[in-house]
Every structure is written in C-alpha cells, then in structure tokens.
Specification:
The chain has 240 residues and is mostly helical. It is built from eight helices and four strands.
C-alpha cells in the first residue's frame, strides 16, 4: 500500500506542476501578446507535461542544492534547459514537426532553447524548491490514503485519455505530412489537409493555435505545405 501511495503521490506532483506550468505559460504569453492566450501545448487539458517533468527533476535531483541559492539557480537553469532541448528534439524526430523555435531570440541554441528561458527556469527552480513544494507536499501528506487514491486515479484517467486522444490526432497529422513528402500528389494532399484542418478535426486546429510557430521539417514540398498552413491561419484570422 505504501508503494502504491508513493506512486500516486509522485503522479500528483507531476500533474500539479504540469498544470501550474500551463497557468504560468498562458499568463506570460497573454502579457507578451497583449491578449488572452489559452491554447498552449498539444494536449487538450490545462497542463503541460514538460513542466511536470522539469519540476520532478528539480524536486528529486536538485534538492541537494536547496540551501545554496546560486547553485540551485545554475543547476535548475541547466537541467531544465536540457529537458526542453531534448523534448523539442524527440518530438521533432517522432512527428517531423518543430513545435517551438527561439531562433528570433538572442543567445539561442538551434532554436530549441534560449538564454532568457534558461534564466526563468533557474528562477523557477528556486521558487519551486523553496516555497511551492514544501507547502504542496505538506498538503498532500495530510490527505488520507482513500482521498489521495481517489484524487490520483481521477486525474490519471483524465490525463491518460487526453494523451491517447492527442497522440492519435498528431499521428494522423504526421501521416498526412509523410504522404505529402513522399508522393507527388499536391492537389490530393491539399484537399485532404484542408478537410482535416479546417472542417473535420477540432484537435489539430487547436494544436496549430497552441503552436503558432509550428513548422514541418524537410524539403521544398514541405515548404509548400507550410505555406498552405499559413494560408489557413490567415483565413481563420480574417473570419474573427
């Protein structure tokens, strides 16, 4: 029972920080864009797993630096930047899509990470370990096994179904892209993509809104595909 409680405890930490990361990102993006931004990440729910992973690493690997603010800041910036870099790389390899690009930012590395974000990661590491996590862990520890189990299972089912649904949609988008790259059938693929993106699947339209800088990786045919996506974005914007 203790092992199961620990697993539920770890998941709730991951899920909670994924949600906090989502809230922090929409606040930051809304301030930057000067309008409310709600669509962040490729999952449907209000959570960003990359923040949950980053927080998990901070809590379990960097707690040794808790009493050394400078070391915690530096290690948090480095470790979280590595998480962001390899998340970008892995997702690009899987889906053939560049989900975010910091090439326009100063001191970036391959457009996957940038110095400004690394600074925020370092600052966030201090806030998480020194303030948020002690309070949140105390809150969870005060719950009975039954309540903790109920909350954990409830959110795990929601999260699991969300991940499965979103991956199915993204795989469909990947298949569409591969068809476009490997076949000289532009008109056919354009018709299929137009139907999928604009008339058929709400989820893919949401992904495009969540990642406005999304690009498909590869050659000249893919450039035409990207131009077509940009045309769809302009059409949607003109209708608002």
């Amino acid at each position: 029972m203790e092992v199961f409680r620990e697993c539920v405890f770890v998941f709730l930490l991951f899920f909670s920080y994924s949600t906090l990361g989502y809230l922090a990102e929409i606040i930051f993006c809304s301030i930057r864009e000067k309008k409310l931004i709600f669509n962040r990440g490729f999952l449907l729910g209000p959570y960003l797993p990359i923040y949950g992973v980053g927080a998990f690493v901070i809590i379990y690997w960097l707690n040794r630096y808790q009493d050394d603010i400078v070391a915690l800041f530096v290690m948090g910036a480095v470790v979280c930047s590595l998480v962001e870099y390899f998340t970008s790389l892995i997702m690009e390899k899987i889906f053939k899509i560049r989900w975010w690009d910091y090439s326009h930012m100063k001191f970036n590395l391959n457009g996957r990470i940038c110095l400004f974000n690394s600074f925020l990661f370092g600052l966030g590491s201090i806030i998480v370990l020194k303030f948020i996590n002690p309070f949140y862990v105390g809150l969870l520890m005060g719950l009975s096994n039954r309540i903790l189990l109920f909350i954990g299972v409830f959110f795990f089912v929601i999260f699991f179904l969300d991940v499965i649904t979103s991956i199915i949609v993204l795989v469909q988008l990947k298949l569409n892209t591969n068809m476009f790259m490997n076949r000289d059938a532009t008109s056919e693929v354009k018709r299929m993509v137009h139907s999928t993106l604009q008339n058929h699947t709400f989820f893919i339209r949401r992904v495009l809104r969540a990642f406005p800088m999304i690009t498909i990786i590869n050659d000249e045919k893919v450039k035409e595909f990207n131009d077509y996506l940009e045309k769809l974005r302009r059409e949607r914007k003109s209708r608002k």
